[in-house]
């Protein structure tokens, strides 16, 4: 079983480590790639398609990143014919309704507020697992806060 390919764009190395650990704990064959900002995300997507590799099954995107922020990256992803259909879940420290609404208007499939306990990170990973394995269980678009 090949498993799903996930791409996390987040400038916080600790968040990557914890999310990776949560997906490993699920016991499913996920591949989790990490880029540190929106520019690296867009470069990664461009390089993978040009290099003949497959695009990710889901992108996990932080909002507050250097160089190209999550809003800008999301807008570019949704304008691309190649990536427009890739689900994008926002995973941010933001709790403002304005940021949530903006993300949804730009085409995010869901919005998660970053968890501050490992138990909630596990729940976040389980939500993604459920969405990827049973997409009908999570209507789109949907705002989810944890």
What's the layout of helices and strands?
Elements (H helix, E strand, L loop, with lengths): L4 E5 L3 H14 L4 E5 L2 H13 L7 E4 L8 H10 L8 E5 L4 H10 L3 E4 L4 H16 L8 E2 L3
Parallel strand pairs: 1-2, 1-3, 3-4, 4-5, 5-6
Describe this structure in words.
The chain has 146 residues and is an alpha/beta fold. The chain has one domain (5-143): Rossmann fold (3-Layer(aba) Sandwich). Helix content is 43%, strand content 17%. The protein has 5 helices and 6 strands, in the order βαβαβαβαβαβ. It has a 6-stranded parallel β-sheet, sandwiched between helices. The model is unreliable at 139-146 (pLDDT under 50).
Overall form: globular
Mean pLDDT: 87
Provide the CATH top-level class.
Alpha Beta
Task: List the uncertain runs.
Answer: 139-146
Q: In brief, what are we looking at here?
A:
This protein is an alpha/beta fold. The chain has helices at residues 13-26, 38-50, 70-79, 97-106, 118-133; strands at 5-9, 31-35, 58-61, 88-92, 110-113, 142-143. It has a single domain (5-143), classed as 3-Layer(aba) Sandwich (Rossmann fold).
Quick tags:
single chain; alpha/beta; Rossmann fold; 5 helices; 17% strand; globular; disordered C terminus
């Amino acid at each position: 079983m090949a498993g799903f390919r996930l791409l996390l764009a987040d400038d916080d190395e600790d968040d990557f480590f914890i999310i990776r650990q949560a997906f490993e704990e699920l016991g499913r064959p996920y591949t989790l790639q990490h880029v540190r900002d929106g520019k690296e995300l867009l470069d990664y997507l461009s390089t993978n398609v040009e290099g003949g590799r497959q695009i990710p099954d889901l992108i996990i995107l932080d909002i507050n990143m250097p160089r190209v922020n999550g809003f800008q990256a999301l807008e570019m992803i949704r304008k691309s014919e190649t990536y427009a259909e890739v689900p994008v879940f926002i995973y941010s420290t933001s709790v403002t309704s304005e940021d949530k609404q903006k993300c949804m208007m730009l085409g995010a499939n869901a919005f998660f507020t970053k968890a501050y306990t490992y138990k909630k990170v596990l729940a976040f990973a389980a939500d993604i697992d459920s969405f990827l394995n049973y997409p009908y269980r999570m209507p789109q678009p949907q705002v989810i806060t944890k």
